[in-house]
Every structure is written in C-alpha cells, then in structure tokens.
Amino acid sequence: MENTVYKDLIQKALCSREQSYCPYSSFAVGAALLTEEGKVYTGANIESASFSPTVCGERVAFFTAVHNGETRFKAIAVVGGKQGEAVTEFCAPCGVCRQVMAEFCTNDFEIILFDGKTQKVITLGALLPASFTKTNMD
Ligand code: THU
Fold first, then answer.
1. N or C: more exposed end of the chain, with fewer CB within 10 A?
2. Atom of ligand 1 lying closest to residue 56 CA
3. What φ, ψ does residue 55 adopt, rounded to 5°?
4. Is 89 a catalytic residue?
C-alpha cells in the first residue's frame, strides 16, 4: 500500500485513541481499520470496573465494522500508551484481538504499529501463525 494510506490510518488511530475509556489501566489504545473498499472504522479501548468485560480498541473497530455489514479488511493501525501522553512505544494487538482478526482476515492482512516516530508493518500471518480458523471445522 502507499505510504500515505499507512500515515492516514495512523492519524485516525491516534485521533480515535482520545475516545478511550480507561480509568483502571490509564492505558489508552486507538485503532483504525481499513476495509477492502477503502472505508475506515475506528475504535478505542473501553474498560469496566469488573475488568473482564473490557474490550480492546482493535475489537471495538472490528465489531463496529462487522455490525455495519463489513467482512473484508485490508489493514489496521494500532497505537497505545499512557493516557494523556503522546505515544512512545509500539503496541501490538493482544492474543484475543489477533484471533478476532483471523476470523475475518487472511494471513496478508497488515497490522500497522507506530511508536510516535516510526511505523512498523507486520502481517497477521507473522503475528498469529498456525491459527485455528473456521477452515479447521470444514
Ligand atoms: N488494550 C487494547 O486496547 N489493545 C491491545 O492490543 C492491548 C491492550 C487495552 C485493554 C485495556 O483497556 C488496556 O489496554 C490495558 O491492558
């Protein structure tokens, strides 16, 4: 993909991160998910006082998109760091989010990370090799 596409997704993820509800961890995550048709759905992490209902920013983006009828995706940008501060470290998706990505995406789906200076692009296949998917049940 063109570098401008990556940069736009990172900007949208940074902007979405500002909507994070994270009073327990104070760790704010933003995500911007690009569909095959070029639409972008954003998300941010939403926490709960009983902790386990917490949903990551990536899954908020995915579930919003799927709820809007989308099932074909190209890439996602993910940014995270201490709430109220600029992003300074890469924030890779957790295992549960990787599994959700594997539900809808192929191994060439791109995950774009940003540490405030540099962008890094990793494929889903590299982040979740030998995954369990619907094809295992065929
Ligand atoms: N979190 C995400 O939103 N995405 C990730 O990939 C890693 C973790 C959130 C969950 C929780 O609200 C906070 O970061 C600390 O774990």
1. C
2. 3
3. -120, 135
4. no
- C-beta separation of 27 from 17 below 8 A: no
Q: Determine the 3-state secondary structure of 44 from DSSP.
A: strand
Give the Cα separation of 63 and 21 in Å (integer). 17
Per-residue pLDDT tens for 84-101?
999 999 999 999 999 999
Q: Ligand 1 site: residues with CB under 6 angstroms?
A: 22, 25, 27, 29, 45, 47, 54, 56-58, 91, 93-94, 97
- For ligand 1, atom 8: residue with the closest CA: 56
CATH of 3-137, one of 3.40.50.2300, 3.90.870.10, 3.40.140.10, 2.40.160.10: 3.40.140.10
User: What average pLDDT does the structure give for the chain?
Assistant: 98
User: Which of the following is catalytic: 2, 36, 37, 58?
Assistant: 58
Q: Say how many Å lie between the CA of residue 138 and the centre of ligand 1.
A: 32
Domains of the chain, residue spans? 3-137
